[in-house]
Structures are given as structure tokens and as C-alpha cells.
Amino acid sequence: MTAPALWIAKTGLDAQQTRMSLIAQNLANVNTTGYKKERGLFADLMYQNVRQVGAPATQTTTLPSGLQMGTGVRVVATEKIHTQGNIVQTNNSLDMSINGKGFFQILMPDGQINYTRDGTFKLTADGQVVTNEGNPLQPNITVPANAVAISVGSDGTFSVTDDTGATTDLGQINLVSFVNPTGLEPVGNNLFRETVASGAPNIGIAGQDSLGTLTQGSLETSNVNAVEEMVSMIETQRAYEMNTKAISTTDQMLSFVNQNL
Predict the structure, then answer these.
(1) Domains of the chain: which residue ranges?
(2) Are residues 22 and 39 in contact, defined by beta-carbon separation less than 8 angstroms?
(3) What are the pLDDT digits (tens) for 25-63?
(4) pLDDT digits (tens, 9 = 90+) for 167-199
(5) Nearest-CA neighbor of 255 among 3, 10, 70?
(6) What are the φ/ψ torsions at residue 118 (nearest 5 degrees)?
């Protein structure tokens, strides 16, 4: 003899395990530069329609309410929350943060462009501006060997001062926005990939067309709030315990019925 409550509670356990995994992911990345926290979206499963609402009760009346039995819950999506993280000063001339909307463009080894909020950049041996993994910032910028100071304007203007005191403009760091940034696919290493859901990238100059501005010598921290995640963890634990209790109680009820058959 089985009971639907066992399977319903089982789906609840699965859903809470997924939520706990997302909380753990957020807490693990609380210090990851430019990280955007994740959340799970849940939906109730299909219903067994035992008594159709509005069905005829007699020749002249209809049922004002029905009898539908739910079958549980499922995870329908996980999404990134693209809110602004805190800005911290590093005083490193190659660190850049975006204050507002936008992403940096990164050229990948396969020739595709990925996008990031992580403004931690480095120089290669030939002066190319790259990420921590060595992938070039786009548009490509190469700092000459005789540069003694680097300056990045709030609009992305990239210039250097050489050992003679002369200033040279090396190019423009453009930012990219998306109609639906939640639709971007996270691929690891603080990178996102364009998808059909995100829409095509809109490339522009920082500070224009609703894009954010750049701040040199600073980085954007994770937007994870550790206190909120701890509260969510407690809520998830209690929900998991309640679903476990539902399984235990249903098992006791079935055991009582079986013993009295």
C-alpha cells in the first residue's frame, strides 16, 4: 500500500536540497569579484483532477469548487540576480569596477566573446591587457614597455604616461549591456555567455546610453549578503525537516493500517 504524501514529500526534499546547493554556491563565492548571487525558482506539479470545478452537479446547478490533489513541487529554473555589488578600493591601476549597468568584453581562445563584471586585469609580457586566465580584454589594448603610469577615465578612455612625461591615448574600453542579463549563461571564471534569452549585446561608451561608469583602482565585490543567505539556510533546513516529518508520519499511518488489515 502506498500513499501520495510519500511522493509529494519526496519532491519537497529534492527541492530543498537544490535550494541548499544554491545557498552553498552563494556563500562559497561571497568573496568572488563580480559574482552575482543565484536563486532557485519553484513551481507546483500537475494536479489530479478528482472533481472538476464548475462541473454540473445537477441539471440546474454546477459545482462552486472542485477537488484537485497536488503531486508536489519541482525546480523550474535558477537565475542570477544582477544587482550592484559593493565597490572596494584597491589602488591597483589595472583594477576597474563598473558602477551601474554593463559588462567587460573578453576574447576567448575559440574566438568568441564572453562577458564579465570582474575588472581584475593584468599585463602580459608584451603589455597586453588580459584577465587572470590570460584572455584579452576587448577592444585589445597593449601598454608600451616605457609606460610609467596608466590612467582609465570614467568613460573608459585608456591612456598611459611614458618615462618622458608624454601622455598617449591607447584606446577605449567599451561596455556591453543586455536587455535580459538574467538570460546570460554563466560559464565559470566569472564569465557569462550570450544566449537567445539574453538578447544581442548592446555595445556603448561607459556613462552613455544608460551604461555604468568605470572607476579605476577599485573592484566590484560579490552581491551576496551573507546574513540573508544564513537566514535562507535556516528556512531551507526547517522546510527539509518538515518534509522529512511528513514522510515519517505517513509511514507510521501506513504501518498502522497494515497492522490492522
Answers:
(1) 4-82+224-259, 87-220
(2) yes
(3) 999 999 999 999 999 999 999 888 888 887 887 777 887
(4) 999 999 999 999 999 999 999 999 999 999 999
(5) 3
(6) -80, 110
| pTM flag (> 0.85) | yes
In three-state form (DSSP H/G/I as H, E/B as E, the rest C), the secondary structure along the chain is CCCHHHHHHHHHHHHHHHHHHHHHHHHHCCCCCCCCCEEEEEEECCEEEEECCCCECCCCCECCCCEEEECCEEEEEEEECCCCCCEEECCCCCEEEEECCCEEEEECCCCCEEEECCCECEECCCCEEECCCCCEEECCCECCCCEEEEEECCCCEEEEEECCCCEEEEEECCEEECCCHHHCEEEECCEEECCCCCCCCEEECCCCCCCCEEEECEEECCCCCHHHHHHHHHHHHHHHHHHHHHHHHHHHHHHHHHHCC
Residue 53 CB contacts under 8 Å (≥ 6 apart), including other chains:
63, 64, 65, 66, 68
Q: Point out which residues pair with 198 in neighbouring strands.
A: none
Cα(174)–Cα(156) distance, rounded to whole angstroms? Answer: 6
Rounded to an integer, what distance in angstroms lies between the CA atom of residue 207 and that of residue 248? Answer: 58
